[in-house]
Design a protein that fits this description.
By secondary structure, the protein is an alpha+beta fold. It is 38% helix and 32% strand. The strands form 3 sheets. Strands 1-10-4-7 form a 4-stranded antiparallel beta sheet.
């Protein structure tokens, strides 16, 4: 994906400042906030970022938990590729770095006008999304197993009273 993104942003027809912008960030900067409406995706040129989501455990008890780290060559924000969309997670810088913010609508227009690059882009994006889905499924399996083990353990420690 790195080479393809570089080709696209280096194309004079994909205008910097309109279709894309380069951002430098510092450790602890918030790149995107969960719940914001946006229409851009990001490509990390260098640096480390952490993806986190808001989890409500019970009434008035919430946590923000990290669900993954991103680094050089990673793409995120792809739910905003074709139209404005609500951000499903927050992304916060772990280190200093640089990223490219790409306007999703302009990218869609560009890929329509350049079908070979469009095919390559969507093929690679599909691979990325499939890997994320597989990772998510593994996490769900782990959490289910953990929850079942915890429940069994709790049931064993609860005294059972019998009516005599």
């Amino acid at each position: 994906m790195k080479n393809l993104i570089k080709e696209i942003v280096d194309d004079p027809k994909f205008i910097q400042g309109v279709a894309w912008k380069r951002w430098h960030f510092n450790a602890n900067d918030v790149i995107v906030r969960e719940g914001d409406v946006a229409k851009s995706l990001f490509f990390i040129e260098n640096g480390q970022l952490r993806v986190s989501v808001h989890v409500e455990l019970e009434e008035r008890r919430n946590i923000k938990t990290g669900v993954g780290d991103l680094g050089k060559g990673d793409l995120f924000g792809d739910t905003c590729l074709h139209e404005s969309s609500v951000r499903t997670a927050s992304v916060i810088a772990i280190t200093d770095g640089c990223l490219v913010e790409i306007n999703g609508e302009k990218l869609g227009e560009y890929l329509d006008a350049h079908p070979n690059k469009g095919y390559s882009f969507y093929k690679k994006l599909f691979e990325i999304l499939f890997n994320r889905l597989s990772d998510g499924n593994r996490r769900i399996e782990y959490l289910l197993a953990w929850g079942l083990k915890t429940r069994r353990s709790a049931e064993k420690s609860i005294p059972i009273f019998r009516k005599i």
